[in-house]
């Protein structure tokens, strides 16, 4: 925890960001910066969901920070959780979401028959049309499904770990009093 606190930008530094300045009054609320049993799991879940749905590195952090007041999530935890998705993990994530989206839509074909072998020679317009009408819906459905699952798992696991940490603190405190 101490390492994370040292590496994260402070509240003041984060709020000096020109893109966040219009929202600074909302982001200065102290409850968004306290580590509590409700704000930490909410921050983990929000960070995971944002990392998966918003695929643009850097913009993920911006979106997570802006959504923290809505969900009363811890800002530093949400920022750290957005690093679940990195430029290295984005291509496998998109591919997995495409496959999952195809399965959820009940389709088993990977690429349409009309594109087939000429995939590499496609123009930008053809790529856009292919993505919009064929790849887009499975990818979006898959991304949304993976994001919801990761967010829920992140929330449950961090909530459980938070409870275990509090119990260990109470045990140590009671041992000091008894001992």
From TrEMBL:
Signal peptide: none annotated. It comes from the Bacteria. Residues 20-170 form the DUF2062 domain. Keywords: Membrane, Transmembrane, Transmembrane helix. The chain crosses the membrane at residues 44-67, 139-163. The keyword Coiled coil does not apply. The keyword Nucleotide-binding does not apply. PANTHER family: SLL0298 PROTEIN. This is DUF2062 domain-containing protein. It comes from Sphingorhabdus lutea.
């Amino acid at each position: 925890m101490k390492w994370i606190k040292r590496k994260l930008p402070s509240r003041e530094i984060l709020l000096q960001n020109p893109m966040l300045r219009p929202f600074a009054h909302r982001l200065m609320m102290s409850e968004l910066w306290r580590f509590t049993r409700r704000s930490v799991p909410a921050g983990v879940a929000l960070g995971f969901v944002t990392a998966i749905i918003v695929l643009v590195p850097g913009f993920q952090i911006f979106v997570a920070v802006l959504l923290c007041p809505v969900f009363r999530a811890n800002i530093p935890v949400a920022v750290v959780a957005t690093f679940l998705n990195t430029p290295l993990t984005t291509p496998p994530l998109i591919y997995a979401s495409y496959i999952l989206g195809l399965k959820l839509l009940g389709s088993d074909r990977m690429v349409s028959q009309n594109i087939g072998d000429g995939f590499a020679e496609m123009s930008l317009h053809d790529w856009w049309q292919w993505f919009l009408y064929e790849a887009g819906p499975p990818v979006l459905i898959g991304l949304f499904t993976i994001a919801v699952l990761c967010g829920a798992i992140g929330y449950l696991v961090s909530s459980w770990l938070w409870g275990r940490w509090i119990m260990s603190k109470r045990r140590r405190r009671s041992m000091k009093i008894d001992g």
